[in-house]
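Structural prep section.
Before we set up the soaks we want a predicted structure of the protein with magnesium ion in place, mainly to decide which crystallisation condition to try first. Input record follows.
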Amino acid sequence: MMYVSSLKLTNFRNFDQAEFAFDRAKTAIWADNARGKSNVLEGLYFLALAKSGRGARDRDVLKWGADYFVIEAHIEREDHSFSIRIAYDPRVGKKQAFLAEIPLSRLSDLIGAFNAVLFSPEDVDLVLREPVQRRRILDILVSQSSSSYLADLEGYQRVLAQRNRLLKDRSSALLSHPEQVEPWNEQLAELGGRIVSRRIEALHEIQPLLTEYYRSIAPTSEKMQASYRSPISMETRDRGQDILFEALTTRLPQEVKLRYTLTGPHRDNLIFTLDGKAVHQFASKGQLKTVLLSWKLAEATFLERQTGWRPVLLMDDVFSELDPKRAQAVLNMIPNFGQVVVTSARDPDLDFEAHGFRMLGL
Ligand SMILES: Nc1ncnc2c1ncn2[C@@H]1O[C@H](COP(=O)(O)OP(=O)(O)O)[C@@H](O)[C@H]1O
Ligand SMILES: [Mg+2]
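Run finished without errors. Recording the tokens verbatim:
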């Protein structure tokens, strides 16, 4: 198990200076609207990704009017404890991460030091309805278990942007000399093949967990599944690079016309279904929330299996909009996870203390 024992926020969101102590037990942050509950979870999750898990830019999380922000925390693990500090100062245009007081040369070096899973209510609509957001939650899942995945993703984005620029700038030349684009095709196929096969493997691993967790929360017999739509499949993933290279070659005339790259992990889709029907098309808000929740719980179990450490589970406003049966089922599952921090506006129906939560007011 891995847990955060203290968090100090300086000029982060609505906090000038705030310190929070946590123990390995469950914590419920319990306060009225707009007190900063979501911001505390965002600050905790920042320690895992070195950026906002809600997709906010650094200058947006900087307290309005402040010059810099600092997030500091102590992390306890069975084998040792260490500190993480992330400091951002736009005056020097820079964000710097420190691990056990040692400055890291790249922010991505922080990933993997501290693992967390964030359930954010803003994601319920966004993530489940938009393909680009569904790819993002898949990338978040794989990134924390593999630092090479993140490096591949960044490399892929860079090469993709270059290839798309070529398609725009040299469209007619490329049609008569398609070999000019080949070096980019090779790089994209290599990076893309690795990315897609990691995604497919991760999804294969969490599939049974998704189905199981959904069934535990929803008082129905619907079966939840997630499927990855791509020219590459579980069976062909060892040949992924060749499949992508082939597609990049044969679709060039069409790409020249449209001026962007049509094949690769940036075009694949992740579809969630309930009894075979796509949730982004028909599911109710409560069903969507249950789907995302099942995904996040599965992510926590996946990360524990991949890294050997139970991640910290951060659940923002998870209980609103869930009917009492579903809320109760979630509360009953929480003991199976490690450190858990939930937030809730005052909700008299939920007795967190009876479920072993320590209450933290803001
Ligand atoms: N960069 C920022 N600087 C100062 N205040 C901010 C910043 N970003 C958000 N806030 C404020 O934080 C408050 C919301 O905090 P939030 O964590 O969403 O509240 P809660 O989850 O408790 O409802 C709002 O009042 C908002 O105006
Ligand atoms: Mg909130």
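Observations: The mean pLDDT is 93.
Flagged for discussion at group meeting.
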